[in-house]
Amino acid sequence: MTDHNLRLPAEWEPQSAVLIAWPHADTDWADRLADVETTYVALAAAVTRFQPLIIVVASNELRLRAQALLTGEGVDLSKIRFVELPYDDTWLRDSGPITLKTDDGHFQLTDFRFTGWGGKFGAEQDDALVAGLVGEGVFGKAAHKRVDWALEGGGIESDGVGTVLTTWRCLTQRHPEQSREAMSAILSDSLHAQRVLWLDYGYLEGDDTDAHIDTLARFAPGDRIVYQACDDKDDPHYDELRRMGEELAALRTPDGRPYQLYPLPWAKPILDEGRRLAASYANYLIVNGAVLVPAYGDTADDEAARIIAEAHPGREVVQVPCRPLIWQNGSLHCITMQLPAGIV
């Protein structure tokens, strides 16, 4: 395998499986474990309609519990592989592998340093997760490359043909000593990208990732970008997301054309003991033949699903109840990592 042939696939390209980790009483989900398990069961049911699912569990006891819950809801266990490994939490978008591939079927598991979103939370076991999965033989003969630089999968978006989209707010928090140019060079080198596009605006209250791009703006096929908008002028997010929309409108494709933009509706504020939760519709997951879209029990849920379907033509849209997830400041995309076709 020659490195210069590697690229970071787009999420809408064919997949082998989706990777998740099951919540348990020693994770931050402990206080509302039963609630969040309903989302994990719904997610597993949705994914396994379209492709295999790999579930990391912390113990055999947890595997048996997950199997019982899934069986109770009629989920096809033949589509699921369980892998037993230790982990701190279940946000596999950020602790899981960022997989690069060549067009002739070779893969590289790019294993960036995971710091618990800049040291906010303990992350020693999560940082070792990719190596653990490799050790369990999950990825066959794929190369494993450790990169000693903090980056989470939720912090980058790829169009599959050499463009990476990210946010300054997140990466300058992770690497305050580095310039934008220096970080662009590291991203280009480690992800084999031709260019890096930056957003300076955009954030969600209740998001402790420091403005991950996957809560804000997502590439879609055909030079489209789906993004979280806010139409409530009285909401504290209004100006910031309006400015982000202007930044997106100013971006150009590699051949100089503007992107086709798909603004998503804004859910009414969801509070938990007075704390605003980050209910982003941009945090959806693409699988083979479908898009799994977060639903929050809001009147905007159906309109968000309609717009995402329009931006991803030819795919079925499945709504997954995600209100329990945002209690811990993430949503559907944050708890998953897709694996490209051929790696499993």
Structure at a glance:
This protein has 344 residues and is of the alpha/beta class. The protein has helices at residues 33-48, 60-72, 92-95, 116-119, 124-127, 129-135, 168-174, 180-191, 238-250, 301-311, 323-326, and strands at residues 15-21, 53-57, 80-84, 98-101, 107-113, 143-150, 157-158, 163-167, 195-199, 217-220, 224-228, 260-264, 271-272, 275-276, 285-287, 290-295, 316-321, 337-340.
Descriptive notes:
This protein has a single domain, classed as L-arginine/glycine Amidinotransferase, Chain A (5-stranded Propeller). Helices cover 28% and strands 25% of the residues. The protein is built from eleven helices and 18 strands. A four-stranded mixed sheet has the order 3-2-1-18. Strand 1 (15-21), helix 1 and strand 2 form a beta-alpha-beta unit. The longest helix is centred in the N-terminal third of the chain and has 16 residues, at 33-48. It is globular and about 50 Å long. It comes from Dyella jiangningensis.
